[in-house]
Design a protein that fits this description.
The protein is globular. It folds into 2 domains: 87 residues; 67 residues, Orthogonal Bundle (Arc Repressor Mutant, subunit A), CATH 1.10.10.10. It has 9 helices and no strands. By secondary structure, it is an all-alpha fold.
Length: 177
């Protein structure tokens, strides 16, 4: 499977970096995936699916600081694992094909303290948190985010819009905890 991932990477230096990354994080990502899937075969499949997605975006993430890179790898593996778990359990999301264009206006959050915003984001469901992380924190576009999450671009827009609604309600105090 490593050879398939390496075919997605163009230059030899990046290929060597990717191989080192796989060697360093494969066991850790397997552990993350196994905790979700409770199956050795599925966990291995999820880890390599995550590495495939990472290889496909390797130029974008290759120069991230270590702590951001590790978080990126774990989030990607976790998302692939949950997607595989849902697939195995026959729980598919049924996305509609309507476009959602109004997504997450950052200026709406200017009045809120970063600590409050960070706390509210940490309370979101994983799919919303991951969409926000890939889209805003790592700067991926909707297409790249959809590939990493294993959902349609339309689903990415829905996740971002729903996350925005939830965050604004939480921050404004409209949701009782």
């Amino acid at each position: 499977m490593l050879s398939v991932c390496l075919m997605l990477i163009d230059n030899d230096e990046d290929k060597k970096s990717f191989e080192k990354l796989v060697k360093k994080y494969e066991k850790k990502l397997y552990y993350v995936s196994f905790r979700i899937l409770k199956s050795h075969e599925l966990a291995e499949e999820a880890v390599w699916d995550a590495f495939y997605r990472i290889a496909d975006n390797f130029q974008t993430i290759n120069n991230l600081p270590k702590y951001k890179l590790e978080a990126y790898l774990i989030i990607t593996t976790r998302n692939v694992s949950y997607r595989l778990y849902r697939k195995e359990k026959k729980h598919f999301d049924n996305d509609s094909h309507e476009e959602i264009k109004d997504v997450f206006y950052a200026d709406e959050f200017d009045d809120y303290d970063i600590v409050d915003l960070s706390g509210a984001v940490s309370e979101l469901d994983e799919k919303y948190k991951a969409a926000i992380t890939y889209f805003y924190y790592y700067g991926h576009n909707a297409y790249e985010t959809s590939k990493l999450l294993g959902v349609s671009q339309n689903a990415v827009y829905k996740y971002l819009k729903k996350a925005e609604q939830i965050l604004l309600e939480k921050l404004r105090g409209d949701i009782s905890e």
